[in-house]
Specification:
alpha/beta, D-Maltodextrin-Binding Protein, domain 2, 2 domains, nine-stranded mixed beta sheet, 16 helices
Length: about 350
Amino acid sequence: MNAVKFTVSALALAAAAGAADAREQIQIAGSSTVLPYAAIVAEAFGENFEFPTPVVEGGGSGAGRKKLCEGVGENTIDIANSSSRIKQSDIDLCAQNGVNEIMEVRIGYDGIVFASDINGAAFALTPADVFLALGAKVAKDGALADNAAKSWAEVNAALPAQDILAFIPGTKHGTREVFDTEVLLAGCKANGAYDLFLAASAGADDDAKKKDAEKGCLTTRTDGVSVDIDGDYTETLARIAANKNGIGVFGLSFYQNNTDKLQVATMDGVTPSVETISSGDYPVSRPLYFYVKKAHLGVIPGLKEYIEFFVSDDMAGPDGPLAEYGLVSDPELAATQAAVAEETPMGPLE
């Protein structure tokens, strides 16, 4: 990038944002799941390009997107990492604060796994098992009842006779969204509780009734057996280290880098792996994203180059370092590369 072009762009941004000078270091925040991938790319970027190494911080998907939407200018971040797709409320907040164009970059896929202490009992779970263990109300004898199950064996006789204790992602985590929809809600429907919640709803129409039913399905126990973790996966790992009977929810890549401490549960009889996620056999997976403030392109040095480097075959391809760490390469990576090259902003949410 030549100096004249940068100076003009920086002045334009400064005028829009009230900032005196543009930064020279890319600022990134958000998902703890995407964090290690972004850190790998940032380090390699700093080593291979004549730009400063980007600063990558965590904080959670929702918090990262909120920071992205604080406005335009050198005092705001450039990229939000996210393990769940951006919400309309985020887009509305961005628009209110003058962030009018956002690029959505899908980097690949990750699985949500259940893992427990390496020396403990093995688990072969289904979504129904998890719901029956953690749901606040479950279907019993054709009616909704408060969940009083104490052990996994009470939920399913094939499971260990071990006290139920689960460390699940807090509501600020992108991981929570896929946990809710692919595990709790699916298990609730399999248990029959969804239909009972639906029948009990006082909603004015079908949409309202469905929302009530989903809310019932996603409400977890408050008696200490279901524990929300607001920190990153290292906190969940620490909880299991201190509570050997606990089972935690992790991203696949985190588990794969801690196989000396954790053993993974199967889900619907499938062991989570890069291969089973790529094939679609493992039922609990999700896409990973980062979101770019387009107004900062051409202003923050190296931002476009970083984005292109991140989604390059060398980094995000099936033989790249991100795949080695556990990322499942996106089969549509070429389309993402083209959209990044064209600086295509995302359209309306579908």
